[in-house]
Design a protein that fits this description.
four-stranded parallel beta sheet; about 525 residues; about 50% helix; alpha/beta
Length: about 525
């Protein structure tokens, strides 16, 4: 059981032993460092790693440190044991010393054995070299005359650890340090992303966690991308520190919890623009599709369209604070062109289809999936179009009624917000409004417009106004492209989109074409 520091209400939260990943996050100045120090003080099993100190702080070995104590108690020559070095340098020395002792012990055991003995199990040095080669396949590790040497790709030149880049030194430090971590320790890592290239961070920590699967990893970071990569973590959000009570305001979010807007907006250091979307973070199509279409953005699911709109507005209003931009995506639903133009002017993308499911019904998307399955794309698209147009014709009046309801509702919301000097003026306004709304006229005009779409067989225009959650199933699109059901069809689209095939490019282009639409005034600019 891991006991956390004192909360403002004087309680102490705990984390069960079955939780193997913990991420401590918080804004700069919120007290993360003090929180972590108290955590390590209160839990004897915590072992803290700070790569900045390990690479740049020099000093004599500290008898109170686990690694330095091993150095001082080793059979290394006195000169090496007391030398003023960085922690990484002492680790490398200890690693080579222990390798020599292991080799001598193995050699003696083999000479004295009367029967064959098992092959020596991998040593600390073996594990470090394996991890290094896994992270840097083109780089080679050599040991010569008691020194660690490295050779880069396509070169015979050898160089020592001091000439490694800071990122390479960080990898070497973590690999060596974890070899000496106590069994079952809580390994506390300060700024695990420091010095590391974004493309290597996840791969490195996945390997290190596998290397020491017996330990719990506690990461202290303000990098939301890294925090999100540690799936299954318990997240500790440190909001503030109260020095008078030596307590912290903090909250716990269980594994796979979605970070709230408050957490996201309070953390400095996220480097990518933000995209707020509708739906649930784990189950909705939005959360699966949009990260593939916008890989350079941090996609955050907020549930309702109103929350997306409000979060985008608020986030962009605080641009001077975090220097990031935010955009949103909401379904078009039954919004008219004026509503759509307003949202787009506020950095909210509104697709040229009624809802996200309709993106999967785009002709280019259907054709791409059919081609990947070696089916006739034109035939598949034609059959799906026929099915959708027939369904829309059947549902025409019900769809027109829903559009009329939306129009009346939005008009009433806009018009009743006026200012009135008396209840009599307000009553007169409402009376006129009832006449002006004329819902029957709106309904009949909408029906006529929809009948024209059917007569013209304008499939794309129908996708723009047709809200029908069962369209994917009812259109039988999956069968027409050789798949069993609509879920299999959605998964195939997402899988293709994640790849680099011609079908991937076609699907991405089709989806982005209906998403990144500018206002008319922007088109003429």
């Amino acid at each position: 059981m891991l006991t956390l520091p004192t909360n403002l209400d004087l309680s102490h939260a705990t984390i069960d032993d079955n939780v193997r990943r913990v991420v401590i996050i918080g804004a700069n100045g919120a007290g993360k460092s003090l929180f972590t120090s108290r955590l390590c003080h209160d839990n004897a099993t915590c072992w803290r790693l700070n790569v900045l100190e390990a690479l740049y702080h020099t000093g004599a070995p500290d008898p109170g440190d686990i690694i330095d104590a091993r150095v001082l108690n080793s059979t290394m020559p006195e000169f090496n044991r007391t030398l003023v070095q960085t922690r990484l340098e002492r680790l490398l020395g200890l690693l080579l010393h222990d390798e020599l002792i292991d080799l001598l012990a193995d050699k003696i055991a083999r000479r004295q054995a009367t029967d064959s003995i098992p092959r020596r199990s991998p040593s600390h040095l073996d594990r470090v070299i394996d991890l290094w080669q896994g992270m840097f396949p083109q780089s080679h590790v050599l040991v010569d005359s008691g020194r660690f040497l490295f050779r880069g790709p396509g070169s015979n030149e050898r160089y020592g650890a001091p000439l490694l880049s800071d990122g390479e030194k960080a990898v070497l430090f973590y690999a060596c340090a974890l070899c000496y971590a106590p069994k079952g320790a809580n390994i506390v890592v300060d700024s695990p992303e420091m010095f590391l290239h974004p493309s290597t961070i996840q791969a490195l920590w996945n390997r290190l966690e596998t290397m020491r699967h017996d330990c719990r990893f506690i990461y202290v970071t303000h990098d939301l991308e890294f925090a999100a990569s540690r799936q299954g973590s318990t997240i500790v959000w440190v909001e503030a520190y109260n020095p008078d009570k030596e307590s912290w305001k903090y909250s716990l979010l269980g594994p796979d919890s979605v970070l709230s807007e408050g957490i996201y907006m309070s953390i400095i250091g996220a480097r990518r623009p933000v995209l707020f979307v509708e739906g649930d973070a784990t189950r909705s199509i939005d959360a699966k599709l949009y990260p593939l279409l916008f890989p350079d953005m941090t996609v955050k699911s907020l549930g309702s369209c109103n929350r997306v709109i409000e979060a985008t507005r608020t986030f962009n209003a605080l641009n001077d604070f975090h220097h990031l931009t935010a955009m949103g995506i909401v379904d078009r639903d039954r919004r008219n062109e004026n509503e759509v133009a307003y949202l787009r002017s506020r950095q909210i993308m509104v697709p040229e289809v009624a809802e996200i499911e309709n993106i999967f019904m785009l002709p280019r998307v259907i054709a791409a999936v059919a081609a990947a399955a070696r089916r006739d794309p034109a035939r598949a698209v034609s059959r799906v179009k026929n099915a959708v147009i027939t369904m829309f014709d059947h549902d025409l009046k019900a769809q027109a009624l829903e559009h009329t309801r939306h129009h009346v509702k939005r008009t009433v919301e806009y018009r009743v917000d006026g200012r009135f000097n008396s209840i009599a003026q307000f009553e007169q306004h409402i009376a006129r409004l009832t006449i002006e709304l004329n819902p029957r006229s709106v309904y009949e005009n909408t029906c006529r417009a929809f009948r024209r779409l059917v007569a013209d067989r304008d499939y794309m225009a129908i996708l723009k106004v047709y809200n029908h959650k069962s369209m994917l199933s009812a259109s039988n699109v999956a069968a027409h492209v050789g798949l069993s059901n609509k879920d299999a069809y959605i998964e195939r689209v997402l899988k293709l989109l994640a790849g680099n095939s011609p079908q991937s490019a076609e699907i991405r282009a089709a989806a982005l074409a209906v998403l990144t639409v500018k206002n008319d005034k922007d088109k003429t600019a």
